[in-house]
Amino acid sequence: MINTDASKRALRRRHLTMRSRLTADDIETAGAALACRALELPELAGAATVAAYVSMGGEPGTHALREALRARGVRVLLPVLLEDDDLDWGEDAGPGRLAPARRGLLEPEGPRLGPDAVTGADVVLLPGLAVDRRGMRLGRGGGSYDRVLARLAAAGADPALVVLLYDGELLDEVPEEAHDRPVHAAVTPSGLHRFTPRPH
């Protein structure tokens, strides 16, 4: 019997190691290309509210995309990590309005909107380390976004779920567990990738 948890841990280590080798220029260049590709998504073109995140470390950069969305008049929500690793949300008011937080994160200043604020988003941009051709996402293992996805399902909310990745992070298969939910699309610097989520 395959140990899914161990398989995920090994895959995470591999992808985090690859990302650790990227330079600041690599990350910035990929982030600019990602923004251009993501803005081609019809779901983002018609979105009034997008739940995004502030990229950290070797993650594909989200700055250019968030700036472009805000310039379009889109309301951008950013996560705030709670003590139990659940996520609250605040509004993105620009790079000068981000404050250092736990685990090296940057979080929005200003009022907290509550964990349920994400249920009003038209698109949710998810961090990830990889996604497979069924749309199953490999996260970092903290469970914060598993809670977000469960909250969306419980509320009957159906935003477009989009993962931002580097080229080479689209895999044939990602180990999955019962609580994992597929995403609708992935964006890489070289293109858009759509999936057909399986019914749950």
Automatic annotation (TrEMBL):
UniProt keyword Metal-binding present: yes
Organism (species): Streptomyces javensis
UniProt xrefs under SUPFAM superfamilies: NagB/RpiA/CoA transferase-like
Pfam family for this entry, one: 5-FTHF_cyc-lig
Family: Belongs to the 5-formyltetrahydrofolate cyclo-ligase family.
Keywords assigned: ATP-binding, Ligase, Magnesium, Metal-binding, Nucleotide-binding
Coiled coil, from the record: none
Catalyzed reactions: (6S)-5-formyl-5,6,7,8-tetrahydrofolate + ATP = (6R)-5,10-methenyltetrahydrofolate + ADP + phosphate
Cofactor entry: Mg(2+)
Keyword ATP-binding applies: yes
Molecular function in Gene Ontology: 5-formyltetrahydrofolate cyclo-ligase activity
Name listed for the protein in its UniProt record: 5-formyltetrahydrofolate cyclo-ligase
Enzyme Commission number(s) from the entry: 6.3.3.2
